[in-house]
Amino acid sequence: MGHATLETFGGVDLGEIDGMTVLQALSDPVRLEIVRQLAGCTGSTDMPCGQIEVPVTKSTASHHFKILYLAGVLAKREQGTSKYMRLRRDELDERFPGLLDSVLRATAV
Amino acid sequence: MGHATLETFGGVDLGEIDGMTVLQALSDPVRLEIVRQLAGCTGSTDMPCGQIEVPVTKSTASHHFKILYLAGVLAKREQGTSKYMRLRRDELDERFPGLLDSVLRATAV
DNA sequence: ATAGAAGTTCGATCTCTGTCAAATAAGACA
DNA sequence: TGTCTTATTTGACAGAGATCGAACTTCTAT
What we know:
Order of helices and strands of chain A: HHEHEEHH
Oligomer: homodimer
Largest sheet of chain A: 3 strands, antiparallel
Largest interface: A-B, 21 and 21 residues
Helix content of chain A: 40-55%
Distance between the termini of chain A: 43 Å
């Protein structure tokens, strides 16, 4: 059905996530690269998984997406065969103030 | 020789350390507990290794101290048979602004 | 000199996790 | 229906890292 897909983003409940989970999710070079590319998107823009360039195979990338999703770092939106990912900037910053920014700054290229 | 030991703290050059190293050093529950106990010390106070309580054996604790030291998180001072550890708060915050604080906040008990 | 205290290092497990290839699931489209 | 695209899942594997006990080093003290 060609229905609306009205911003139907799915994400885990950040209230249930503890800091160590997020910290460990962010402590991997590949995942950090994913986050960085999504952070590069303006505001609430999202990207299809396949459009994010990482130096691993598709299955490995999918594995990293799952970890980031379960850690509450990413939100998912499905459209057709693609799944669009979005960085949960604001929510993350409310729950863990300053964490994402300082991590991105510390590991900046 | 009973000489002065005038604040002879040893630590790696933080300029040579990259963010991922620090991030991974902080991404372990035991090490984070070490850091937290050292952060509890007022200002530049230090503690002997053995006085920091962690749920692992002495050798494992020593391993974690080494990782934290090599990541530039801790500085070491030797006195007698003891080795005093100090958290490099200010230096760390200058090199990686906000990182330590946000990590400690995010993983607070 | 002998013993004790504080840490480190070594060697051996054991678990975790990042990785890939192949198989699978689901949607789009001819 | 069949095929292509997109992404996930499964199974296997390898490397990294956390852990422990035992041996070793160094300083202190008796």
